Amino acid sequence: MQADLVVVALYLAAVLAIGGVFARGQRSLKEFFLAGRSIPWWAAALSGMATMMSAVGYLGAPGQAYAGDWRYLQMRLAVLPALLIAGFLVLPFFHRLEVYTAYEYLERRFDRRTRLLAAVLFLLLKLFYTGVAIYAPALVVAEMTGWPLLSIVLGIGALTTLYTTLGGIRAVIWTDALQMIVLTAGIVLALWLVIDRVEGGFGGIVSTAMEAGKMRFFDWSLDPTVEFTVWNGIVGGTFYLVSQYAVDQAEIQRFLTTKSVSGCRRAMVWSLLANAVLGVVLFFVGTALWVFYQQHAPGEAIQPDRVFPKFILEEIPAGLRGLLIAGVFAAAMSTVSSILNSLAAVVVRDLRSFHEDDAHTGMAWARYATLVAGAGATALSLYTAQLGNVLVAAGKIRGFFGGVLVGLFLLGMLSRRATAFGAFWGVVVGFVGVSLMAAYTPISWLWYTAFATACTYVAGEALSRRDPAPERAKLEGLVWKP
């Protein structure tokens, strides 16, 4: 245990040092938020992967597979349509317009009120999500040290907020890239070790799991109340993934740091595809852990989100265990720092509207916003345990906010008839609609994002009929041309 703690301490010190080194070059808003648009596409892709995976996926995916089966992965059937919408429709708009945040587009297309509404929705979405991202790695550290979970949550929040305040997006991206490599190596190591410890190895895991129905993938049910089906995986999953990769500032921001539209698209495509593959691997880890504990501890009650940390701490040799835990810890911190940096960008550019000539004051506001966001996310993380499995919790949170934003951006980019009035109130109708669906129907949460998207788009289009159509000249470069 002592060796593991030393490895964790050295790793965290290195991460903080990297943040400090890059902090010295942060003299402008463009550098702090976009790294001067000089990041290689592959580094942006690795950062995008780390941002979306975090400890939420690292712990939640094995926990979901351990407790159930593989039907959650039906969402991966939506990868292709999501790539087409995000990579070839939405992201090119943002890169060509040279915006700092996605929500700057909304003011150009509609008005400032709509931009502010979308920015506030994003702030709420990411504050809640960051709470989950802080809570999840705290589970690992709690298992490792025996310290109170509350103390660890507060410690992670404070350290991550400090690191983010010191470093800009350049430090965030390169740290994310490094941590993603380490995290992937840790997943491979854990997979090899669990296969080695199961009687029958890989074949034994597959045969035992198949016989018990633990690898069930397809569910063709037409019942909308069934949590995971092929239909809500494809339809709901498409808009869920678009909300992650196309209208979420935390993800978009690292793609906008690339040099060109092609680099931006390449980073997004590889990030999405690689995350899909890693998601399958993590689900297999969870299934393998179920077989392992059926053989070695039958009948033992293990909380799903704690099963992977339990295996890491009890079965992985000292030193390697510390390196794996340190990688998870640091990757989680990097993910949270990415989100906090994007929250600061939204505050500075969307809520306060600082520009390059306000660099000194804008930088001060960026750091102040980071501190406030870090404190808020840490406070919210204390209630994450009440949401259930962290993977599903993150999905439910996104369903409320992400789908509305997708509907709003698609309205602006696809409809030449949409007006500012229709867009603003379409968002309100969409959010109220999905809230009512969640509160008064048993419909699966995987339909939330698709329903919110459709509701926002249709309501926005209909309400736009109140006003004259926008002048065509004002839509130049803001609406998609087939």
Features of the shown structure:
globular, single chain, mainly alpha, 482 residues
Which SSEs are present, and which pair or pack?
Blueprint (H helix, E strand, L loop, with lengths): L1 H22 L5 H6 L6 H27 L11 H19 L5 H7 L2 H34 L3 H18 L2 H29 L3 H12 L17 H16 L3 H7 L5 H36 L7 H12 L4 H32 L7 H23 L8 H25 L5 H21 L7 H16 L19
Commentary on this structure:
It is built from 18 helices and no strands. With 482 residues, the protein is an all-alpha fold. α3 (41-67) crosses α14 and α3 crosses α16 (390-414). The longest helix is centred in the middle third of the chain and has 36 residues, at 261-296. The chain is globular and about 70 Å long. 58% of the residues are buried.
Order of helices and strands: HHHHHHHHHHHHHHHHHH
The gyration radius over C-alpha positions equals: 22 Å
Helix content: over 70%
**Contiguous helical run count:** 18
Q: Which parts are unreliable, with pLDDT below 50 for 5 consecutive residues or more? A: none
Shape category: globular
Termini separation (Å)? 60 Å
SS content category: mainly alpha
pLDDT averaged over residues: 84
Relative strand content: under 5%
Largest sheet, strands/sense/barrel = none
Count of distinct strands: 0
Q: What's this, in brief?
A:
The protein has 482 residues and is mainly alpha-helical. It has helices at 2-23, 29-34, 41-67, 79-97, 103-109, 112-145, 149-166, 169-197, 201-212, 230-245, 249-255, 261-296, 304-315, 320-351, 359-381, 390-414, 420-440, 448-463. Helix content is 75%, strand content 0%.
